[in-house]
């Protein structure tokens, strides 16, 4: 490839990468809302409440089911803890989803430039300025407890702006290192109300089903991946040429 063409291709890929880095997860570009995401979450009593036991990453988990639960909502934020969680017992909680539904979607309040969603340290916040009619009872932070490999793959494909269906059980969780005493137990308790806030207001969901109802920003995400891999390939080719290709005399 001629050097001039290579230079312009690199600049084009870099420009696409920079633009789509921001547009691929743009919440405000979501226009079409699925009917399911306008409905409130369904929390129903369980006919059986047998505890769920399993071991993973050197920990024993004991889950107490509280309710069957289904939530259909817009992903206002996703925080992936797969690679940087500092506690081994959190390996079954690979991600938190900040979800909103109902009137917040019907009124398009999520598109308001004065509304900002953020996540950090297992928390989800929404802040706004001015006259914004945001319903805080239609926003929740969800700790997703996953013990099935196929569900992990589905979770990884979810991004901000997608509309999703999550089905499973609200659970209280006790975890301890395998073979240790009760005194070393760690607990995670689920909220069972959409009206609470602050510490303890997050839903802990033992996930049994994940569906993406509608993907967002599909073109931006495709272009982002193509530009990323294109830039990576060009850099690797340049390194290869520098070290292994003979330099032609002028």
Relevant terms:
single chain, alpha+beta, two-stranded antiparallel ribbon
Task: Round the mean pLDDT to the nearest integer and report it.
Answer: 90
CA-based gyration radius: 22 Å
**H and E order:** HEEEEHEEEHEEEH
* 3D shape: globular
Q: Report on the biggest sheet.
A: 5 strands, mixed, barrel
Structural class: alpha+beta
Query: In terms of per-residue confidence, which ranges show pLDDT below 50 for 5 or more consecutive residues?
Result: none
Q: Distance between termini?
A: 18 Å
Kindly state the percentage of residues in helix.
10-25%
**Spatial ordering of strands, largest sheet:** 3-4-7-10-8
Please give the domain count.
Answer: 2
Say how many strands there are: 10
Number of helices: 4
Strand portion: 25-35%
What does this entry show, briefly?
The protein has helices at 3-23, 103-106, 149-156, 218-244, and strands spanning 42-44, 52-56, 59-80, 95-100, 115-120, 123-128, 139-145, 163-177, 186-188, 203-214. The protein has 250 residues and is α+β, with helices and mostly antiparallel strands.
